[in-house]
Amino acid sequence: MYVGMMFIAHCAEHLFAGPIPFSVFTGYFASINQPFPTAMVVLAGLIEMAVTIGLASGFMTRIAALGAVAYLFVSVGLGGHFGVGYVWVLTTGGWEFPALWMFAVSIFAFIGGGPVSVDTWLKNKFPEMPKHSFD
Hints:
The longest helix has 21 residues, at 37-57. The protein starts with a helix and ends in a 10-residue tail after the last helix. It is mostly helical and 135 residues long. It has helices at residues 2-5, 8-15, 19-31, 37-57, 61-78, 81-84, 96-111, 118-125. The chain contains eight helices and no strands. It has one domain. Helix 3 (19-31) crosses helix 4 (37-57) and helix 5 (61-78) runs antiparallel to helix 7.
């Protein structure tokens, strides 16, 4: 649950923090030459919300984890963090923390949601479904 909940702060910043933070993100996305920066801020927030729901509840865990890793990799690349260097506490942010986060999230792509996940509940509720449907 914790790994999934790590996305909430980012999701809330993009979607629910109000017009001033939203305009800051829109300005930042425009500064890195993102097409349609307003739409990209909303898209980023929606992706983060989907990842939060998927990983925190264990619903479609493997898909959520793969999506999260792809999202983190692309966003770190588009944000120029790879060029900054390894240390994430630099003013412009490096890629150390996102790399750790990608590793933590990728574990769920391999192991799935676990015994108290929605995936496991669905698997137990509908045992006649093919194994890969909820796994």
